[in-house]
């Protein structure tokens, strides 16, 4: 069995699966970083991703176009995030309660709408996006197929992670948004419109989270099922913390979870004599163990989850 695991073909397939499983987490994690950098905690990423998944499926199914499906998924995710923004920014309600409520709301809403859409049909399938291998890069041994023989949404994600890093590190707009999450009152004194920045961040949060949910439908599965996010929204929150609120750190943390998830799937495939229930626990156990290493290293924005009321003291 060890000989099977150590073969190049097994390792290449394993790494490719790890990247594929990590992509939705990275999209959602990137959106959560942008929200939290502005001081808004969105625990409702599970609902954002679920909305993105359902509306991307509905759009693609009804129109026959994956592009329309993607746009619908982005708008579906953004609608949930903007509702969270209404509760947490405009009405200054508890952000944790708002996020959890939205998760439960979207679970019921998407299940209800899917029943209406399916009209009694038990299974509906759409075509998924094809892979586009990059010349030369996709031929690199072991990592080429995993990272450079992917779909367009994955390539777009690589670009977005790099741009987000440079945006927050080297641009005035990025520094202003980060200041809103650290010291909103000081940022407002410097002429930054705090609430406008938070609304923009929530819109981007919803768009990226919606793409994360849409990826599951449009690239991986081609179908929608009730509660298909299955905790990925919460794992995306964990990747942000584990990645210390940085795009590249979150990227690595998501790959860690994707690797753990791919490992348990591959071990079951080759027939490892361990309970499948224990193997299913593996990705979450590894994530928890990794997060123990962040104890005492709090890098979160100073004003995270604290509603800002203009003019208050």
How would you characterize the overall build of this protein?
The chain is mainly alpha-helical and 313 residues long. It contains 13 helices and 2 strands. A two-stranded antiparallel ribbon has the order 1-2. The radius of gyration is 20 Å and the shape is globular. The termini are far apart.
Features:
mainly alpha, 71% helix, globular, two-stranded antiparallel sheet, 313 residues, 13 helices
Topology:
Blueprint: H1 2-5, H2 8-37, H3 45-63, H4 66-90, H5 95-118, E1 132-133, H6 143-148, E2 149-150, H7 152-170, H8 172-182, H9 184-189, H10 194-221, H11 232-242, H12 247-269, H13 276-292
Antiparallel strand pairs: 1-2
Helix pairs in contact: 2-7, 2-10, 2-11, 2-12, 3-4, 3-5, 3-10, 3-11, 4-5, 4-10, 7-8, 11-12, 11-13, 12-13
Strand percentage, roughly? Answer: under 5%
- Helical coverage, percent range: over 70%
Instruction: Describe the main β-sheet briefly.
Output: 2 strands, antiparallel
The Rg value, from CA coordinates, equals 20 Å
Protein structure class: mainly alpha
Number of helices: 13
| Unreliably modeled segments | none
Mean pLDDT figure? 87
Distance between the termini: 65 Å
Oligomeric state of the chains in view? single chain
| Biggest sheet strand line-up | 1-2
Shape: globular
Order of helices and strands: HHHHHEHEHHHHHHH
Number of strands: 2
């Amino acid at each position: 069995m060890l000989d099977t695991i150590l073969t190049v073909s097994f390792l290449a397939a394993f790494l490719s699966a790890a990247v594929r499983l990590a992509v939705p987490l990275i999209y959602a994690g990137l959106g959560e970083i942008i929200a939290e950098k502005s001081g808004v905690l969105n625990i409702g990423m599970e609902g954002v991703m679920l909305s993105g998944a359902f509306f991307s499926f509905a759009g693609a199914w009804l129109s026959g176009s994956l592009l329309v499906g993607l746009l619908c998924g982005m708008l579906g995710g953004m609608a949930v995030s903007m509702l969270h923004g209404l509760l947490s920014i405009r009405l200054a309600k508890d952000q944790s309660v708002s996020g959890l409520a939205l998760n439960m709301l979207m679970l019921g809403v998407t299940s209800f709408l899917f029943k209406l859409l399916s009209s009694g049909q038990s299974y509906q399938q759409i075509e998924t996006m094809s892979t586009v291998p990059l010349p030369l890069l996709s031929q690199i041994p072991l990592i080429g197929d995993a990272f450079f023989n992917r779909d367009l949404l994955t390539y777009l994600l690589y670009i977005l992670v790099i741009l987000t890093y440079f945006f927050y590190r080297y641009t005035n707009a990025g520094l202003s948004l980060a200041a809103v999450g650290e010291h909103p009152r000081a940022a407002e004194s410097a002429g930054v419109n705090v609430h406008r920045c938070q609304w923009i961040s929530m819109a981007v949060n919803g768009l990226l989270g919606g793409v994360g949910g849409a990826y599951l439908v449009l690239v991986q599965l081609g179908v929608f099922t009730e509660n298909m996010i299955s905790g990925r929204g919460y794992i995306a929150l964990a990747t942000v913390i584990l990645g210390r609120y940085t795009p590249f750190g979150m990227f690595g943390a998501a790959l860690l979870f994707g690797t753990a998830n791919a490992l348990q799937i591959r071990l079951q495939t080759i027939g490892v004599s361990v309970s499948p229930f224990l193997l299913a626990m593996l990705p979450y156990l590894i994530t928890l163990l990794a997060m123990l290493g962040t104890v005492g290293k709090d890098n979160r924005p100073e004003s995270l989850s604290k509603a800002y009321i203009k003019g208050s003291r």
